[in-house]
């Protein structure tokens, strides 16, 4: 038996990687980020031949990085222990090296001169068609805009009526002597056409003629991919379809038009939902609903819901209920305008008051643009309200007008944008000792991302309300303002902030203001924490910002799911008041605002 160093062809090789500076910090950073040698250095130590293979793969990848930044003349030299990768002695040297040795990999880039764009040729481009702005002669020859110009040019052609256009991949020719890169895109525009007949496949109950009227797309208008995608989005917005896919335009017809087909898949017509909420002040709320998504074939919805609420809360006196029937008809006399009708029977037993009420409402919801909506219509309220042992009946006719402006990106978990709302509710008492009055309520919530991908969000909300035309005791108790609880100042018992009767139960007021700030921080993909501070006040007079300010603070936990975050908030009042507990707990779906 011969003694000596054993063969190590399958033994792992330990190595370090060093990068010589190129003079371009962006290039140096990208070389490290794309290096397999760096990425797998600790994860998977290689055998000798595998180390050489990694280095060769990096050498090819590094050339791609150089070219992407316009260094088409550049090169990258990689050595292992000073030996080039094609050195025939390198494999044996690595195999015979002691197992305790750490091999040294050196990466030395030579970027050379940066190329700039020379000619940008667009053979086949229709006369007068604007050139893509992202590739201009004289600019650095970065790969990203050169490659992105192809789909951008194709989209521009499709949006200008060239439904059958095609654009070839860019062909680049480099001139090392002048450091210029000439680029050419071969274009076949095809005919310029209008939109032809619009058809739908997959319909079971929906009326195709209604869908044609609903979408802002008509036979005879100039073909546009953007218009077709907008029509697809409006079809999804009806809530009837689980998917809508515009198919590629059919061959041009005899009228020189491009027929359009939408492939649809209708959702199940009926749905049953269950819901549950808990807060220490308002107690448990359990509800269920039944939904018909397409009552008469025109995307009408009918919703029947029932909920048991006020179960065991510190701000309630007994259990209540809420029974509601709601009907919605889209495109009511105008595209995008929705008619909403509702009838609701409810019983509330709160510390501030208790009531039994019949509410009948009709409203029109009309979009001004994709972000702004106005909603208006009459409400009829017939109720019996008990407060401080006095029972009164009221019949009110109201006409609320709401303007909303929402630029946020999500209903349950917004990460940027804002959500603003202003509601004016003129109220005419028909029966009951009350004066005519107007309720004004405005709110503004904003969301500021402070970390990438929505991992850290600062969320803020402000609310201001005032009742004009009557003093607070001239307004039915349920129409007054209250603060405290999850909707205003967490930590304080529901409705406890504001003027109090001698027995420390809430009176309600004629003005209110509240402010909240949260920091929503993801810890993992599914877990997050949310510290928060709320403040608010209610005054008997009509002017906001004149009551006694109360502040609550707390921290929340979030479990993020596919349908939104599950929220658990714990809050305490910083100044404990009569009728308020030492802490409050809130559990629900979605963020607090």
Automatic annotation (TrEMBL):
Keywords: Membrane, Transmembrane, Transmembrane beta strand. Residues 295-593 form the Bacterial surface antigen (D15) domain. One of its GO terms (cellular component) is outer membrane. InterPro entries: Bac_surfAg_D15, BamA/TamA_POTRA, D15-like. It comes from the Bacteria. Its main location: membrane. This is Translocation and assembly module TamA. It comes from Acidocella aromatica.
């Amino acid at each position: 038996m011969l003694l000596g160093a054993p063969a190590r062809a399958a033994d792992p090789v330990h190595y370090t990687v060093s990068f010589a500076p190129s003079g371009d910090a962006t290039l140096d950073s990208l070389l490290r980020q794309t290096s397999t040698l760096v990425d797998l250095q600790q994860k998977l130590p290689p055998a000798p031949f595998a180390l050489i293979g990694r280095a060769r793969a990096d050498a090819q990848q590094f050339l791609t990085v150089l070219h992407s930044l316009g260094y088409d003349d550049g090169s990258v030299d990689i050595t292992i222990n000073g030996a080039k990768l094609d050195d025939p002695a390198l494999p044996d040297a690595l195999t015979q090296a002691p197992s305790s040795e750490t091999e040294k990999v050196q990466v030395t880039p030579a970027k050379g001169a940066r190329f700039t764009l020379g000619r940008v040729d667009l053979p086949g481009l229709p006369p007068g068609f604007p050139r893509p702005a992202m590739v201009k002669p004289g600019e650095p020859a970065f790969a990203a805009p050169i490659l992105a110009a192809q789909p951008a040019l194709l989209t521009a052609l499709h949006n200008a009526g060239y439904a059958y256009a095609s654009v070839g991949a860019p062909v680049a020719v480099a001139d090392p002597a002048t450091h210029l890169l000439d680029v050419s895109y071969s274009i076949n525009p095809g005919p310029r056409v209008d939109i032809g007949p619009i058809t739908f496949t997959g319909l079971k109950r929906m009326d195709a003629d209604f869908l044609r009227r609903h979408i802002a797309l008509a036979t005879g208008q100039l073909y546009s991919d953007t218009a077709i995608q907008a029509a697809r989005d409006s079809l999804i917005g009806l809530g009837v379809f689980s998917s809508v896919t515009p198919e590629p335009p059919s061959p041009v017809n005899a009228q020189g038009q491009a027929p359009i087909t939408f492939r649809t898949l209708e959702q199940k017509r009926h749905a049953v939902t269950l819901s549950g909420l808990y807060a220490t002040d308002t107690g448990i709320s359990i509800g269920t609903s039944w939904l018909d998504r397409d009552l008469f074939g025109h995307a009408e919805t009918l919703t029947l819901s029932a909920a048991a609420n006020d179960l065991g809360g510190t701000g309630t006196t007994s259990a209540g209920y809420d029974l509601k029937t709601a009907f919605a008809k889209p495109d009511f006399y105008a595209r995008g305008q929705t008619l909403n009708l509702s009838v609701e029977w409810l019983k509330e037993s709160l510390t501030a008051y208790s009531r039994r009420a019949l509410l009948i409402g009709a409203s029109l919801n009309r979009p001004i643009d994709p972000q702004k909506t106005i909603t208006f219509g009459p409400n009829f309220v017939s109720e019996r309200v008990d407060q401080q042992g006095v029972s009164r009946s009221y019949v009110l006719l109201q006409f609320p007008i709401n303007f909303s402006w929402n630029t946020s990106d999500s209903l349950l978990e917004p990460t940027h944008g804002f959500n603003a709302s202003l509601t004016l509710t003129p109220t005419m008492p028909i029966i009951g000792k009350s004066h005519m009055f107007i309720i004004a309520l405005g709110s503004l919530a904003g969301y500021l991302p402070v970390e990438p991908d929505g991992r850290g969000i600062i969320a803020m909300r402000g609310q201001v309300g005032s009742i004009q035309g009557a003093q607070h005791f001239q307004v039915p108790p349920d129409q007054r303002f209250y603060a405290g609880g999850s909707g205003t100042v967490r930590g304080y018992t529901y409705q406890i902030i504001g003027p109090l009767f001698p027995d420390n139960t809430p009176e309600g007021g004629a003005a209110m203001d509240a402010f909240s700030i949260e920091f929503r921080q993801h810890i993992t993909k599914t877990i997050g924490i949310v510290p928060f501070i709320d403040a608010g006040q209610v005054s008997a007079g009509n002017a906001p910002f004149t009551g006694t300010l109360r502040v609550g603070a707390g921290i929340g936990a979030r479990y993020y799911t596919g349908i939104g975050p599950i929220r658990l908030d714990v809050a305490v009042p910083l100044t404990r008041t009569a009728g308020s507990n030492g802490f409050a707990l809130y559990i629900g779906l979605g963020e607090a605002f």
